[in-house]
Amino acid sequence: MADKVKEVAIEEADRLKHLTTDAARSGAYLYPIRGIAYFLSHRSLWKPLISKLAPSMTLGLGITTFMFVFTYLPQAAVMAFTNGPLAALTASLLVLSESSTLFTIFSKTFLIDDALIDTFDGVLLSKNTTDLVSEGRQVKAGGDPIAKLGKLVKRPLQKFSPNAMIRYLMYLPLNFIPVVGTVIFVLLQGKRTGPVFHTRYFQLKKWNKDQQEKHIEQYRGAYTGYVMVYSEYQAEG
Questions:
Q1: pTM reported for the whole predicted model
Q2: Phi, psi dihedral angles at 151 (to 5 degrees)
């Protein structure tokens, strides 16, 4: 039994090593930075999100403050037994990750889901992919990319599911492993949540489950690298 556990642990460590290497080679960790630059340089894309800015910032600040006030010290105290002097740092990273997850759930559910769809479709239109966008909504003639957006024909099916939260809670104990535990936790989160950002794209492409899985597996490292940097920006924002 012990040999089997050791074998599985070695295999998983090898997978994580390859995943980390693929993430670094992909360069996808730069996409959040490039995305911010693109967004700031195209004022027309601001329209869907501008009205959501203040409530989103308030929500993010409120969640992060609440989490640090009520959960940081208990988690740091527990981690002091496993991570020693690094407990303060690993606890901070864990609280930021938890805050980011909660913010994503609440903001997409109650605040910005429609605005994100409009922004995503607007970016596609700015890249001259009208035929692709027209698979999911009516597209008007003339104007800037956002002005061209008509009535939605298809809405992304990806919504928050209890399974996602259950998996997140299952991964949390990894943070009690000294030093590398938090890194593994973030890697696994990136691996799992990365493809969610392409839910709308998959829908517009009319890909079935097998086609999606093939694409996701091909770009697994890229998705992971993207989400790791995205989550850090989101938590600090």
A1: 0.78
A2: -65, 140
Task: For residue 228, give the nearest of 174, 179, 191, 180 by alpha carbon.
Answer: 191
How far is C-alpha 132 from the chain's CA centre?
23
CB atoms within 10 A of CB 221: 21
139 bridge partner residues: 149
**Which burial class, exposed, middle or buried, applies to 204 when counting CB atoms under 10 A from its CB (0-12, 13-18, 19+)?**
buried
Are 103 and 55 in contact by the 8 Å Cβ rule? The answer is no
d(CA 89, CA 123): 37
Question: Backbone phi, then psi, for 138, in 5-degree steps?
Answer: -75, 140
Question: Nearest-CA neighbor of 204 among 141, 139, 159, 140?
Answer: 139
- Residue 217, token pair as written in the block: 């597996």
Q: What sign does the CA torsion over 133, 136, 141, 144 have?
A: negative
- Predicted confidence (pLDDT) per residue in 35-45, tens digit: 999 999 999 99
Query: Given the structure tokens 């911010």, which residue do they identify?
Result: 36
Using the 8-state DSSP alphabet, how is residue 60 labeled? H
89-97, long-range: CB < 8 A, 24+ apart: 90/175, 90/179, 90/181, 90/182, 93/182, 93/186, 94/172, 94/175, 94/182, 94/185, 95/64, 95/67, 95/68, 95/71, 96/64, 96/232, 96/235, 96/236, 97/185, 97/186, 97/189, 97/231, 97/235
- 175 within 8 A of 182, measured Cβ to Cβ: yes
Higher pLDDT, 185 or 77: 77
Spatial distance between the Cα atoms of 30 and 202, rounded to a whole number of angstroms: 22
Residue linked to tokens 């997140």 = 168
CB-count burial class (<10 Å; 0-12, 13-18, 19+) for 135: middle
